[in-house]
Specification:
Layout lengths: L12 H8 L5 H61 L3 E3 L4 E3 L29 H11 L18
């Protein structure tokens, strides 16, 4: 049943036929299917372990990117400070042309939001799905505008 890992994990008709072909009592069939399920769980653990290892490597590489970016910024800051101290707005060397340029303007709110004029406020509205489920659990009524779904899953111990 290794073909499933090339897709999204759905079983093909052939795989269902193989499961249906398991002979013996129903309990035997359940035992076989539970063993296969445990093998799948083990595969998940192995793959998750590999993902964790790779993510640790990604974290290490990202840290190197941050270090290099910080180093480049500090060097540029040093050049800019030296240019400002020398009173230079532009420097041309054999290899580079370096000059200062104004950044785009930015704004920072320095008072409480309730004191700002309304034209400078943004409001983000989203559905409160947690409140909808809570209402459904408490009243048994589905709130207007919501679909409530509750599935079931199998536990193997």
């Amino acid at each position: 049943m290794a073909q499933a890992d090339l897709r999204d994990g759905e079983l093909t008709d052939e795989e269902f036929n193989q499961l249906d072909a398991i002979t013996g009592s129903f309990n035997h069939k359940v035992d076989v299917l539970c063993q296969l399920s445990r093998e799948d769980d083990s595969e998940v653990a192995v793959r998750q372990s590999e993902i964790d290892r790779l993510m640790a490597e990604v974290d290490r590489l990202r840290a190197g990117v941050v270090t290099a970016k910080n180093r480049a910024k500090r060097r540029k800051d040093y050049i800019q400070t030296c240019m400002e101290q020398a009173g230079l707005a532009k420097v041309k060397t054999d290899l580079f042309l370096v000059y200062t340029q104004a950044n785009p303007p930015s704004a920072e709110c320095v008072i409480p939001l309730d004191k700002l004029p309304e034209r400078f406020l943004k409001v983000a509205v989203s559905a409160d799905t947690v409140a909808a489920v809570k209402h459904w659990k408490e009243t048994g009524e589905k709130p207007d505008g919501f679909e409530i779904r509750q599935g079931q899953h199998l536990r193997i111990k």
